[in-house]
């Protein structure tokens, strides 16, 4: 293991405005250099020279080189990225769970910025920004065609400064501005409570530096409330990922010692690794085992893991490990399917490169890249069916996504048909001024999937989805 977890990795689904969420291993740059393609580099130099001498106005050298690097890296896959000085600082801040911004998780849809969810307690949350709101302008800048990272940069700033977001809310068919004061966001990644006597719920919304310590604290509190817990629900829905060592630690909390949690494989020797449920694979340098105080009962308590299309990377590592070892029953919807590892390499004191270096595999050796984890029990989002599942973006929907690397890919025409039908239903409801059903807050009495998990524990009939089926990896068009 030695240096492999010297600095932890960061896995993701989208971008959090203020915290980039991506799972990676951070390492030093490679010592060996590959041969340079001289003819192509001469062509690049020729273009650079023409731009410098022929373009209508002077162009900054640093900007030209920075943009060239950004374009080269962005052409690889959706998760590789060049970090300039500002974005590198933001990325490193993101691993701590503290940043200055408005506090929303975002993705891109039809050239606009879509709100995945506001962070609880953040300025955006207090301002009433909702899931699925579309951001059309940031201050006076239209976001149509704006890169996601550029949108993030514009929403970040100094504490106490203001930013105005223009929103389009589909279900209300209206566009309106919201002015938000930026502040330091401290995300709380672990929540827990007793659902009813004997049955506990613990939710991880991200895998951050404090997640493991907070998880241990919450578990200890649950067992103080009820030392004889009969069933525990681990809720990973909409968890976009985070630190790799945190994912290994959470898996280790439930698995037998030295069980395989996840393995990685890529071109580099350092990309061929196996991570196990042992302190050397997740404890921080100089620290002690953060799991040492957990109650022994956690290793054997009946366990259900809730997942959905928003469960990605680090959360898929945990779900896959617990499923493969038959330690938990997985319930919900098929996960996002981000099964790649990004390595962050510094290019200098304040710039860096995040590049995909490996795929990761569950203990049984399955790649979930562009496929995801399939639950043991498929559940609809609500008792009335799936509200937004068909419209949600998954890894396989992203342009230039990496394939699974295992076997042939198949195209699923039923998937796009379901998306189109869901789109039409939403449009019809909007035209009829009929608001679509709202997703209940996770962990409440209205949480349908959680209520089904409790029924599963009690051996009562569960309302299994009649429409959800496994989504196969889709073949990319050439």
UniProtKB/TrEMBL annotation:
The keyword Protease applies. InterPro entries: ClpP/crotonase-like_dom_sf, CtpA/B_N, PDZ, PDZ_sf, Peptidase_S41A, Tail-specific_protease. Residues 400-450 are annotated as: Disordered. GO terms for molecular function: endopeptidase activity; serine-type peptidase activity. GO terms for cellular component: outer membrane-bounded periplasmic space. Keywords: Hydrolase, Protease, Serine protease. The keyword Protein transport does not apply. Residues 409-434 have a biased composition (Basic and acidic residues). CDD domains: cpPDZ_CPP-like, Peptidase_S41_CPP. Residues 88-156 form the PDZ domain. It holds the Pfam family Peptidase_S41. SUPFAM superfamilies: ClpP/crotonase, PDZ domain-like. GO terms for biological process: proteolysis; signal transduction. Belongs to the peptidase S41A family. PANTHER family: CARBOXY-TERMINAL PROCESSING PROTEASE CTPA, TAIL-SPECIFIC PROTEASE. NCBIfam families: prc (TIGR00225). This is PDZ domain-containing protein.
